[in-house]
Amino acid sequence: MVPFGSISSLADATVAELHEAFKQNTLTSKQLVEYYLSQILKLNSTLRGIVEVNPDVLTLADQADEERRAGASISKSGLHGIPVLLKENIATLDKQNTTAGSFALLGSVVPRDAGVVVKLRSAGAIIFGKANLSEWAHYRPGPNGWSARGGQALNPYLMSADPRGSSTGSATSVAADMVAVSLGTETDGSIIGPSFANSVVGFKPTLGLTSRSGVIPISPRQDTVGPICRTVSDAVYVLDAIAGYDPYDNATELASKFIPSGGYKQFLKENGLQGKRLGIVRSPFFNFPNENSHLAQAFENHFQILSMILNSKQSGESTALRTEFKIALNSYLSELVSSPIRTLADAIAFNLKYSTLEMIPEFGHSIFLEAEKTTGTSDPVYQEALANLQRLTENGYVKLMTENNLDALVTPNSSVTSMIAIGGFPGISVPAGYGPNGAPFGICFSGLHGYEPRLIEVSYAFEQATKVRKPPSYLV
């Protein structure tokens, strides 16, 4: 007898498969949560992908099961009864912490759920817990996937390999089947990077398509919240739930115009590549070193290369981010109901007084200190950096896409992330294979604002045609 109806095993089950089992009454949300809890007990002490589990998670699962038995309308939602793991910089007004991995914010109380959490709860999703991350979303230099609260997250495919960051725990936890779906955040590469490195799907939406309210910020100009899952379809289920207007994030009003009638699931088409015009830039993205010749061969096999050259030198991003970080973080901290720190200056003082990071030489306080010295957006240095970023976006990425009439740009791993970060453009990373040592690599499809339907069609068709992803074997 099949244990869960149409699902032979809960391992790596998709959202659609889980919902079918719910529908057949062969699986409950409580059973699903208990399965993931058992996975955490087996794996998380080594992988350190999850910082904390919601203490009310079993109660929430029981509630979802009762709604399903009662035939409540919410039970028809695509994420109803599905546990969702949140990166630990995404606020929840419950018994969980929101600290960005830093002890400086332990015990702080947020004024409300983050905008994406409001939407997840409205869709009936179960807020499962908080994922480890590179501390302060990697805005303090240090090892990818390390935070004071969570320790060092490891790559389940090759534990000596770089797990990337900053949404490290969101990616490793999904890859290791400690949860089906998760949310990450990206300022520059923090969804795409850990997704390719851990052989999962990472979806960075158009800036403002998903709310950033209640997310510990770096830059409102670049910050984005998006799904990290094992399949494109699961990522789309999550995007459908979290996209849309939030009165606490002005950017969502403008970006809401990009949401198609009927949502995003309609673009999960196996023939989605038909008629699409894809651009692949050989230089610099496909100039692989000799030791990565397997990457070059894999991508040559996947696509017929289109010959185009992009000559774009990204400059000014770090200067702009430092100014924006100070303003945005001070604003976030000032709105907390209670907190051990209230300003960036307080965070610096805390770190200097209590930091245990001296044991990790790569870690430092330099970015925080540089950000604290900034004097605001009227500073000519900031204005010059911002103007340069806008020129690079228009004369580089936008020009490349529009002059060549591209539906998507195709790049390996996370090589394109700065380009799409500074312009607020979307991208989807999909597993593309494994190196000789077992370390994963990925392929990224990116586009202009509102190109999510095209990117979903392309990435889903690629995923279904290749089906290269395999579960990790936890090699040391």
UniProtKB/TrEMBL annotation:
Amidase domain ranges (all copies): 32-415
Any Pfam family hit: Amidase
InterPro entries: Amidase_dom, AS_sf
Protein name per UniProt: Amidase domain-containing protein
Native source organism of the sequence: Protea cynaroides
